[in-house]
Write a structure and sequence with these properties.
By secondary structure, the protein is mainly beta. It has a single domain, classed as Jelly Rolls. The chain contains no helices and 9 strands.
């Protein structure tokens, strides 16, 4: 069995002009790693995930809404979002975010 190394997360995605892009970087039976590039003002509206997720902001600034609470997160921020919690993301500037979906190990 071998591991996986991603040396430069920022290099894995180009931020589209006036858009959002996402790409799966890794997946197995336990996790799914997705990178997002957001231009300023782009967003993921209210939604939920069926599994816990971890958000890691690599670059930029986001307005993050978890349930009814909003906050601003900046570069190198790390956020845990429990399964079923309504959340939304809006880019305050061009941003790169990595999302890890944590599937059950059972």
């Amino acid at each position: 069995m071998s591991g996986t190394v991603l040396h430069d997360l920022r290099a894995e995605v180009e931020i589209p002009e006036d858009g959002t892009i996402s790409r799966v970087l890794y997946k197995d039976d336990h996790i799914r790693l997705v990178i997002f590039g957001f231009d300023r003002g782009q967003e993921l509206t209210d939604h939920t995930a069926g599994v816990p997720v971890v958000l890691h902001l690599v670059e930029g600034r986001l307005e993050l809404t978890l349930g009814s609470e909003s906050s601003e997160v900046g570069p190198e921020s790390w956020v845990h979002i429990p399964a079923g919690l309504t959340h939304a993301v809006r880019a305050l500037e061009p941003s790169v975010m990595v999302l890890t979906l944590l599937r059950s190990a059972s």
